[in-house]
Amino acid sequence: MARYTGPKTKIARKFGEAIYGEDKVLAKKNYPPGQHGLNRRRKTSEYGLQLREKQKAKYTYGVLERQFRNLFETAARTKGITGEVLLQLLESRLDNIVYRLGIAPSRPAARQLVLHKHITVNGKVVNIPSYRVKAGDVVAVREKSKSLEVIADCLAGFNHSKYPWIEWDESVKGGKFLHTPQREDIPENIKEQLIVELYSK
User: Fold this and answer.
1) 3-state percent breakdown (helix, strand, coil) of the chain, nearest 5
2) In a domain, 2, yes or no
3) C-alpha angle with apex 127: 138 to 147, nearest 5 degrees?
4) Which residues contact 69 (CB under 8 A, 6 or more apart)?
5) Residue 195 neighbours by CB under 8 Å, 6+ apart
6) Given CA atoms 111, 113, 116, 117 in this order, what sign does their dihedral have?
7) Above 60 in pLDDT, residue 131?
8) How many CA atoms lie within 13 A of 137 on its CB side?
9) 128: region left, alpha or beta (phi > 0 left; psi from -120 to 50 alpha)
10) Largest CA distance in the chain
11) What is the arithmetic mean of pLDDT over 38-54?
12) 163 within domain boundaries
């Protein structure tokens, strides 16, 4: 499956949640897209619920199937609760950290900033969105890119105390990744246990 580039509202309506951020259409049409969206009342099977949760996580974080599977296998080998570790690995991705810092308005936008070499990790340019940020790493805007209007607009009025695992430093237009977030600190509405059950079959 290639990376999804279609209408984001369609995906948000499919899951009934604003997984890409605030969605005005979803507020008016909180039912699945399509001609029969309002009339779909079929009971979803256990497998269907598990698959839906995995798809939701993939779309939320912008990860492809093979990447997601590899992350799950890494989580399964890591000490701790597999579902929680999976979410922690997703949260540790560079594109996600850029989004959490408020440097970009969405994860796809954060991914683009990383790919276009606007972001540094510990002072060095990193253009790999899936790069895993470690505790103590400083993620910041590249010096040449600090005047970009899109970045300035996003940072204006952003609440940098939203996430306790990141510490913002205005002087470098970036933040330090203090530690891996605990499950209760991750705001995404994802039932990770269903994903674990799906892959455990």
Assistant:
1) 45, 10, 45
2) no
3) 70
4) 199
5) 50, 53, 54, 57, 72, 83, 86
6) negative
7) yes
8) 19
9) beta
10) 54
11) 80
12) yes
Indicate if the pLDDT at residue 185 is higher than 50: yes
Residues 171 and 193 in one domain: no
Across the chain, mean pLDDT equals 87
Tokens of 149: 């209007």
Q: DSSP labels for 29-79?
A: --S-SSTTGGG--PPPPHHHHHHHHHHHHHHHHT--HHHHHHHHHHHHHSS
The structural domain count of the chain equals 2
Question: For residue 21, what is the DSSP state?
Answer: S
- Please tell me the distance from the alpha carbon of residue 73 to that of residue 94, in angstroms, as a whole number: 20
Token pair in block for residue 68: 């997601």
CA–CA distance, 64 with 187 (Å, rounded to integer): 21
Asked if the model's pLDDT at residue 26 lies above 60, the reply is no
Going by the DSSP 8-state scheme, the letter that residue 153 receives in this structure is: H
Enclosing domain of residue 41: 8-89+187-199
Give the strand order in the sheet containing 174-177. 124-125, 119-121, 138-141, 174-177, 166-169
Kindly state the average pLDDT of the residues 113-131: 97
104 and 171 part of one domain: yes
